[in-house]
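Note to self: keep these together.
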Amino acid sequence: MTEGKIIDILDVQAGRVKETTMPAAVRAYDPLKDLREALLRTQVEKGLRNLQEAYVLTPDANSLLRDGLRFIAFQGYNEIPATFTPFVTRFTSTRPHEEYLRDGAVGLIPQTKSGTETPRIMSQFDGGAKIENQRYAAILEVTGDDLRFDRLGIIATQTAPELGRAMRMTEEQQVYNVLTTTANFTRSNTTRDNDVGANTQNLTFNAANLETAYTVISTSKDRATGAYLGLAPDTLVVGPRLMFAAQQLLLGSDMLRTHGNTSAEVRGTSTYNPYRGMITRIVVSPWLSDSFNWALIDSRRMGIVFQEVEPMTVSQSSQDQSDERFFTRDIIRFRVTGYFGVGIADDRPLFYSNSTTAPTVS
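Structure:
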């Protein structure tokens, strides 16, 4: 799997950037190692023949197994960065769905002389965006033989981490599904949403098309009053195949022009790169595209919403006669669940290009 990456441009003049590929994870504690050591101590102290007998006689074995697999699963969860964090707005949700105003601007405040009645202003309510919450769940089964024949190593090194990674990948997939669905982008200059054009187009990644996307967002305005919203894109989202072209265009100190007009002399130009510092964050994620799609976002305004009812959790079934599955089939179950919703509350801070053409940045 290609790793995600977030590139924050700290000092454009000095060329200093901060690259984050995964959050720092605490790795000093190995819960499965604790379990093994506890079983071995019991086996030696009581002269038992196998680890299964030691497991039965070790009081903390069940809790070590439960907490150990949870810990390892969440290590896998944290090893994959949430690349969408910089450009989504997160809320805690307590309802089956949440609704957001599609357009809620009040326009301009009119001049009012002292002694005259203050005019009333009306907020424009142009429909609403409803984002449904969905439950995600899966069960991992571990048999008693996995304990009897000491297969905990396989579970700890492969199964539990993959369970955690699946939790993170589910969140990533849902966010990028929303971002790459062209039907979610409905703004255009023809509907008085901006001065330039539609906020989803098939544009090859290059300097001219980046300018188009930038001005689509920065000229966004209230449809009813025509008041500009003051948007300013700060985040570029690309797939791994566009990462190098994006860094070359936005981080290079110089810019050379090729195939330009050579018949007329133009003075006053330079090789300074005017796109350097234009965007302060580059998010690289394979979930966006395996082609050349890209998106430009003003992350300071509410565009994509991630609303969470319940965070991802891992729970374990009991290991006694109260659990029919364990009592009749010798199976222990681990369940992972999460409850959240993702959608676009306002697509004006967003621009998406579904281009499949290689970038023209040289």
